[in-house]
Amino acid sequence: MAVNNSARRRGRPPRIDESAIAAAVLEIGTENATMRRVAEHLGVSLPGLYHHVKNQHDLLRLATVSALTNSPPPRYTGEHWATWLRDYATYIRTVLAAEPALVEKFVSGAVGHDVEMEYTADAVEALAAQGLSPSDALAVWASVSTMAVGSVTEAHREYLYSESGQPWLARILALTAKRAPSEFPTLRAIAKSGDDPFGDEAFQHRITLLLVGIAAHYGLSPEP
């Protein structure tokens, strides 16, 4: 057995490229991915990994690009405009929520601007085809995109609160416990109902509110 291990060490080191590195980061999990762990996962030396990436920032950048390009956002293919925008928003939330550490890289421009701009160009063309002006098409697109990314940020912040022992409900109870029973009746009712503003169901409801508002404001056909 020792002979086999020695022979393996003397053999040619595994070939790696950026796609393999990105896959390793996503398999390990972005919050746990360090240079050493990724090198071990790939079966290469730490200096060997440094030959391809400079630091952990590079690891997360590659993982972000991989996550968003290997499974790209849904493009408009003629379906109802609102159905497409809901699918897009859900895609962004799902991809980024799966790996919270990717959010920072996404908003800081880790994805090539040419890829992002091409998708934006296609999106506003699709919205303009619904009868919207260029400015209105951009406003609609930006509204949906902002809500999707913002929901991931809020959900991640809530995760951190929960990890520290202060989830949403606990924070409400901490506040209302200090006040008279007559104060904040609406917030108390929310706590009693167990409403979770950070979950998928709440997100889909907010998207519905946004799409209904867009349809009413611009005179577009409502979501089927």
Automatic annotation (TrEMBL):
Gene3D superfamilies: Homeodomain-like, Tetracycline Repressor, domain 2. GO terms for molecular function: DNA-binding transcription factor activity; transcription cis-regulatory region binding. It comes from the Bacteria. InterPro entries: Homeodomain-like_sf, HTH-type_TetR-like_transc_reg, Repressor_TetR_C, Tet_transcr_reg_TetR, Tet_transcr_reg_TetR-rel_C_sf. Residues 78-217 form the Tetracycline repressor TetR C-terminal domain. It holds the Pfam family TetR_C_1. Keywords: DNA-binding, Repressor, Transcription, Transcription regulation. One of its GO terms (biological process) is response to antibiotic. This is TetR family transcriptional regulator. The lineage of its organism: Bacteria, Bacillati, Actinomycetota, Actinomycetes, Mycobacteriales.
